[in-house]
């Protein structure tokens, strides 16, 4: 049995009513990391503005990772570029350890559709230092994460050309456009919790058993369009090789704040026949002996869950040895 996640008793961590700079109907899908200067957990929060019906990124901070201490009274990333006119959405934050800088991937939305975009900075708490590099992949795409360390001298990136997760390697994050196609590593499986599509959640964490990351899986609209979370472990030296993928969700919508039955402007309710049932992981950090997963809950708020790191890795290692788990593709 894989060590279970436990929801934080402080959930939801961020609600729309916590935002002061605009009237928001959603605060969800956060990019999360630990700021290396302050040792605080920093969340780049997707803020859905009720009036404009478009998103920007707000910023929240937490000392212990379990409760929010501060939420900025202004956006951290506004819709300033043409490729962001319709929204800045769903950030992921990677600390590039050898370069001592942060890489922020996010969805820039415009008339060209959703595009994977990139920001880099050496100061996460100073948005004036954020450097935009624009769309990095040709065509519509989402759910992109960058590994914290290079493998064989190259950056390793996961992204999601619908409906599967692919792995690519590049020599530079900024100089050239990234490949739109790569090695498929995880895809949908009929008649399972990920029957329709999958996407990478948080940037992978290097562990003794492999690269560990949470990912989301969704069912079809006919099945309710339910978003749940699973674990995936990739080989340290060959990240295209999947060692483990969850055969059942590690976290699925069950808590009241993970299920929204009333209409909300940030989604098309026709796509959610049984209500908005969403657990959408985008952050994974270490705090003490625990791993903390941060996720968008019901496309409304942000929530978190914890698991003892040693217990999780031990259970995953045993599952890998016994060849248990789901089918990647």
Can you put this structure into words, describing what you see?
The chain has one helix spanning 309-321, and strands at residues 6-7, 24-34, 41-49, 54-62, 70-71, 87-96, 101-110, 113-121, 131-135, 142-146, 155-160, 165-170, 183-186, 197-200, 205-207, 210-218, 227-234, 242-245, 259-260, 276-277, 279-287, 290-297, 301-308. It is mostly beta strands and 329 residues long. It has a single domain (10-321), classed as Glycosyl hydrolase domain, family 43 (Tachylectin-2, Chain A, 5 Propeller), CATH 2.115.10.20. It is globular and about 50 Å long.
- Domain count: 1
The fourth-level CATH homologous superfamily is: Glycosyl hydrolase domain, family 43
CATH class: Mainly Beta
Cα-atom Rg, whole angstroms? 18 Å
Largest sheet: 5 strands, antiparallel
**Number of DSSP helical runs:** 1
CATH-derived architecture = 5 Propeller
Question: Per CATH, what is the topology?
Answer: Tachylectin-2, Chain A
What is the residue-averaged pLDDT? 98
What's the SSE pattern? EEEEEEEEEEEEEEEEEEEEEEEH
> Could you say which overall geometry the principal axes of the C-alpha atoms support?
globular
Structural class: mainly beta
Q: Which stretches of 5+ consecutive residues score pLDDT under 50?
A: none
Based on DSSP secondary structure assignment, what is the total number of beta strands?
23
What is this structure, in a nutshell?
This protein has one domain: Tachylectin-2, Chain A (5 Propeller). The protein contains one helix and 23 strands.
